[in-house]
């Protein structure tokens, strides 16, 4: 075999190998490119999943915090209705003390019994965070007081509470019943 023949025979083989090698390199490049794209997609998906997880955790935390606040409010203000129903009893005991003849010896034991009952009742209410609103002499506050009438009185500042018809009450700082008052006119 001559050198030319050998060359003619080897050249197509070399060209075929080179072509095959180029195809393989191209296939590897395409595969690397595909893998790179896949890595990019997976990276984006991972970031999205992390973000969704953080949002879900934050939402769960908010729901838990709201539920705890609701339970706390229920504990604090669940007694509001019964307190409102019991306040007329306090009013009646106070009226009884105001209207009974304390000078009469026969009434001393009754007065003492009513006073002790009223004190015990008020102490129990205070223990459960029920506070009286007795604004005599204070400036009128529409958030805590209900004006029943207005009277001109030059001796006091306008909008000053002159008289309290009925005390108001708050439960944990929330108004249960406003104080009914007479207010000074300007």
Automatic annotation (TrEMBL):
Biased composition (Acidic residues): 23-32
Intracellular or extracellular location(s): Cytoplasm
GO molecular function ontology, one term from the record: unfolded protein binding
A biological-process GO annotation: protein folding
Keywords, alphabetical: Chaperone, Cytoplasm, Stress response
Domain of life: Bacteria
Region annotation (Disordered) ranges: 1-34
Chain coiled-coil ranges: none
Biased segments, Basic and acidic residues type: 1-10
Any GO CC annotation of this UniProt entry: cytosol
Role, per record: Participates actively in the response to hyperosmotic and heat shock by preventing the aggregation of stress-denatured proteins, in association with DnaK and GrpE. It is the nucleotide exchange factor for DnaK and may function as a thermosensor. Unfolded proteins bind initially to DnaJ; upon interaction with the DnaJ-bound protein, DnaK hydrolyzes its bound ATP, resulting in the formation of a stable complex. GrpE releases ADP from DnaK; ATP binding to DnaK triggers the release of the substrate protein, thus completing the reaction cycle.
Assembly, per entry: Homodimer.
Protein family (similarity comment): Belongs to the GrpE family.
Listed name of the protein: Protein GrpE
